[in-house]
Known about the structure:
Blueprint: E1 2-6, H1 8-12, H2 22-36, E2 40-45, H3 48-63, H4 69-78, E3 82-85, H5 91-101, H6 105-117, E4 120-122, H7 126-135
Amino acid sequence: MVAVVVDANVALGWIEALDQGPDLHDYAAKLGRALANDEAYLIAPYVFHAECAHSLLKRSRSGGWPPGTVQDYAAMIESYRVALHPEITPLLEHVDAAVKRHVQGFDLLYLDLALATGASIATKDRGLIAAAERVGVRVF
């Protein structure tokens, strides 16, 4: 069994009802199958839930979802058992590392977790994929 750092955008791909395109849904389903078959376990930085909540709430407001839909989707994401890592980097160190690795602030947390644990990373974010390849992190 291997560790996989799951990006929040991939977690949203587990929700078929969200219009995100077949590529993301297929990729997320592949990751879900690896989890279900005990081929992988999923980890994410402490911001994972906040990022998922932000995206769900933003889509709920713009899409006029009926009451309870956000909670249903959040429960769906939680059912995938993503272990959160609480590591917090001081701000100046975080900014310096993000600039050095040419990634956005949140993306650095996912990349650093993969580096620290030897995990691969599950993402469809092109910038994060490029950064992972630059530092030798395998992309799921």
